[in-house]
Design a protein that fits this description.
Length: 382
């Protein structure tokens, strides 16, 4: 008989609490929302700002820190997927070493799009084994999605987000005043993620998009209806994220549009933005749901009509079922052995599929081409 093993067990729970706070005109002189986090006496802040944000809003940001007596070290970082690298993290760590901050009460501040907040959050999760950080999203993608949760990461070895961590921020501060300087393509990129939420979990949001989406895009969401759309999208996103922050549950509604898009985005990175790839996945999924009879013809037609009405122009040329099938196989690893593909079963209703076949995908691509061509011709005739 072998001797009984000596065993010690360690158990711990890490509480997570952070505010997502909408605070318009964050860098107006009177606004001190940013001072609510970290020390005020002798405050030092390491601030990373997206290079394009710096171009449009840099003076206001710099002035704000000066007006509030905060010693600041401003670093710019270019946005764009190609800058979401380990090298970018190493550069930031080297910069951090030149500007000592208190490990607990001088939070790093990330001001930028999803690329920048993912990179900075990853640095914050590993610098001295973890320092606090605050996210200030400046793209629509960040505002309604990327900055809200706790996922951090960089692309590596040809794979998106291959290295990353779960790192709760100290706070997320939302200022819609950043959106008007965003190029239209990037605004629409974020709209694709709102469409995702509407189709898979929120019929009322879908109706809001139908009624007010186009006008809201034209107004950069600075109109009351646009604000209502963003507030609803954020609330819905947080309802999905909060009970499953660390993704113990791998069947996630918010993964709608993120199964086939992964491969498309990896393969056509120079051509497709994240939301654009998500939109293609949404349309393929709607087509599959239609083929299976999960989605009624009228509902599928409403989704296609909404995409047209919002001015989203999916680039169908990049669709190929081989890439998408391999993407699904990769997602099976990511989702621990099962497909767990969220699919619409009616607008605002979700089911999870584990039995999508290559044949279905092969059929969906030409059917989608034919559908969009027919819709287009209909519009031209009108
Ligand atoms: N962590 C998450 O949960 C999560 C969720 C969704 C997406 N993401 C990630 O987000 C990334 C995409 O984010 P993104 O779409 O914000 O891209 P991005 O950060 O590259 O920003 C897009 C472009 O807009 C510019 N920009 C940013 N703010 C601006 C402003 N206010 N005015 C003018 N220009 C501005 C940037 O310089 C860049 O050129 C992807 O890497 C994706 O994986 C992460």
């Amino acid at each position: 008989m072998s001797a009984p093993a000596t065993r010690w067990q360690v158990r711990a729970q890490r509480p997570v609490a952070y505010d997502v706070l909408k605070t318009p005109a964050l860098f107006a002189p009177h606004n001190d929302a940013l001072l609510a986090f970290g020390r005020r006496e002798g405050a030092r802040r390491f601030v990373v700002v997206d290079a394009n944000v710096m171009r449009h809003h840099g003076a206001a940001i710099r002035d704000w820190f000066g007006q509030h007596g905060v010693e600041v070290h401003l670093v710019t970082h270019p946005g764009g997927e190609e800058c979401k690298t380990l090298e970018a993290c190493q550069d930031l760590v080297c910069e951090l070493d030149t500007f000592p901050i208190h490990r607990r009460d001088d939070p790093i501040i990330a001001i930028g799009g999803g690329v920048l907040t993912d990179v900075v959050a990853f640095v914050a999760s590993s610098y001295r084994r973890g320092v606090p950080h605050i996210k200030v999203p400046t793209t629509l993608m960040g505002y309604i999605d990327a900055a809200l949760g706790i996922k951090a990461g960089v692309n590596f070895n040809g794979n998106k987000n291959r290295l990353g961590s779960f790192e709760p921020p100290q706070a997320v501060l939302l200022d819609p005043a950043f959106l008007p300087s965003l190029p239209r393509r990037h605004l629409l990129n974020g709209v694709c993620e709102i469409v995702k939420l509407a189709v898979i979990r929120d019929r009322a949001l879908f109706a809001q998009l139908e009624a007010d989406g186009a006008a809201s895009i034209a107004a950069c969401f600075a109109n009351p209806a646009g604000e209502a759309i963003l507030d609803r999208a954020i609330g819905g996103m947080l309802e999905e994220l909060a009970p499953n922050l660390f993704e113990e549950e791998l069947a996630r509604k918010v993964d709608f549009g993120h199964t086939f898009s992964y491969g498309l985005e990896t393969r056509h990175g120079e051509r497709l933005l994240h939301g654009e790839a998500v939109l293609l996945d949404i349309l393929v999924s709607v087509q599959i749901a239609r083929q299976r009879g999960l989605l009624a013809g009228d509902d599928a037609a409403r989704v296609f009509a909404l995409v047209g009405r919002l001015g989203l122009a999916p680039d169908l040329r990049v669709l190929d079922s081989g890439t998408m099938w391999h993407s699904l196989l990769d997602r099976i690893e990511h989702r621990n052995g099962q497909q767990r593909v969220p699919m619409p079963a009616g607008i605002g209703q979700c089911v999870f599929l584990n039995d999508i076949t290559r044949r279905e995908l092969d059929a969906a691509v030409p059917a989608l081409h034919a559908r969009i061509k027919a819709d287009h011709e209909l519009v031209l005739e009108c």
